[in-house]
Sequence to fold (575 residues):
Amino acid sequence: MSLISKVKRFLRIETKPTKDDEEDKPTESKITGASTTEKIKKPVNLEDVGASKQEVEKVAEENAKPRIGYIHLSGCTGDGMALTENYDILAELLTNMVDIVYGQTLVDVWDMPEMDLALVEGSVCLQDEHSMHELQEVREKAKLVCAFGSCAANGCFTRYARGGQQARPDHESFLPIGDLIDVDLAIPGCPPSPEIIAKTVVALIQEDMDYLQPMIDLAATTEGCGCDLQKYIVNNALCTGCGTCAMACQTRAVTMVEGRPAFNSDRCIKCGICRIQCPRSWWPEERIKEDLGL
Amino acid sequence: MVLGTSKQIVSARATDKQIQAVSQDGGIVTGLLSFALDEKIIEGAVVAGPGEELWKPKPMVAMSADEIIAAAGTKYTFSPNVMMLKKAVRQYGIEKLGTVAIPCQTMGIRKMQSYPFGVRFLADKLKLLVGIYCMENFPFASLETFINEKLGLSTDLVEKMDIGKGKLWIYTQDETFSLPLKETHGYEQAGCNICKDYVAELADVSTGSVGSPDGWSTVITRTDDGDTIFQQAVDAGIFEIKDIDSVKPGLPLLEKLAKSKADKGAKESERRRELGLPVPW
Ligand SMILES: Cc1cc2nc3c(=O)[nH]c(=O)nc-3n(C[C@H](O)[C@H](O)[C@H](O)COP(=O)(O)OP(=O)(O)OC[C@H]3O[C@@H](n4cnc5c(N)ncnc54)[C@H](O)[C@@H]3O)c2cc1C
Ligand code: SF4
Ligand code: SF4
Ligand code: SF4
Fold:
């Protein structure tokens, strides 16, 4: 199967859901405590990207590699750096598996082309006209939009922004991209680990929907904080004192006190990772057993 | 199957007298981690080490067999071992890591390996995960209630605690006390009530006392790696083993307890779901 038809399968183009069907169905999030009344996902169909089925088939024959764009908003480039830390597979990935068709510093292209997948790094600044425009354009040009890294997914440390700094004192309000556009999948992390990036890319190319389901579910929430552990896990009688949250916190904001997570708000960057890694927030049992050969 | 996927299930005991003397049951955890360390299968292991207060454990990175032995024995309260895994790799420079984990800790570790969103370069360092069976765990204050209030003992005098045969057993240097488990009900942490995994179904090797005679353990090998390491240890004379069908009470009791825990956990999940509370399964 060609890669583009795999991407098509991933986009569920083949099953062609009607717009009405999709809109009746609220996004059911599997993440404990995630709001179930979040945005409805944008239904993707061929007409939206201005192509007939025959045309896509033709493109598939001519160009089998998924076309990926990298959009850099208000982030620190850490997510892109983490991607490049996949030394073992990077050359193969970039030469033979995907086409990077857009991205500042990566590709010498000024106008945003049509893309199969757009990785968006960083939150978006409401006062930054250029970023706001770019974000809208991404949604129009990309079949799949991925919030790549915690800033794009849930705001992360840009949640602390309050403006009043040079060079643009007016740049004050930063939001996760899902607050403004429909996001198809999220890969949170500050930055996401090189491994999760590699696993996601491979799953995308192999159209492994089961593996990607948590990323799709995570796109439904744009919040994250160390206090989530207390609010969603401890308060809901779910905590077992396992210590996974304290291990996962990338800033050592979580310690364990009397078998329960305690978090230091001065250290917390609101990446959301502690709750995401907690085994009591969502539980991918089938995949784990498969990975272990059990 | 109610005991999870398994390669072999045997009754076993460490042959080393020093390990027998300090360990909770058959010394499987201490024996296996020490063996893996000696054989350089691992370079260190995260275990529930002694804390500042007696019976209040603290996760620690053990780099020698002596340190692993010093952490032997069950502590019936929280030791968040998972939190030390990253430290073991980053601060102790361990490239090949072992650990012991109760089922809920095993779940946190395995989820991190399959979905390492924010955890870099750790998933592939874990070479041996020894799981221990678990019916429930207690906040430290609950232990104080049992020992100080219900039995009228000082915690400092307690040499060993054990749960088995329907009772919580407290051993001091020269006396044995017990409390029927119905006296401990309601003192466990609430998170345990939805737990469905009794026998650490996602570990490389799982072990616990139930099914085997006193001083012996029931061992379940699960992954290829776990089975290989355990078999090597048996071949090296670290453990003596018995056919599980030849010992009393044997597998029927283990299966019964595993099933009743899974059923109770599922029922409690359902009850909470009906109340509109979030549950992971
Ligand atoms: C909370 C709890 C409940 C248990 N419930 C059951 C049960 O219902 N049925 C059953 O058959 N077995 C149960 N066990 C397991 C049993 O008590 C023994 O730990 C197990 O049989 C291993 O014995 P061993 O002689 O092989 O290990 P040992 O050689 O004595 O080593 C025990 C290892 O466990 C680690 N450990 C001790 N306490 C903890 C803790 N709180 N958290 C994490 N690691 C710890 C130590 O660091 C040590 O490495 C339970 C254990 C715990 C911690
Ligand atoms: S406590 Fe740590 S892991 Fe949790 S949101 Fe804050 S920085 Fe992220
Ligand atoms: S990861 Fe473990 S210790 Fe942390 S909140 Fe979740 S259950 Fe509790
Ligand atoms: S019963 Fe389950 S949740 Fe409770 S301590 Fe044991 S393994 Fe953890």
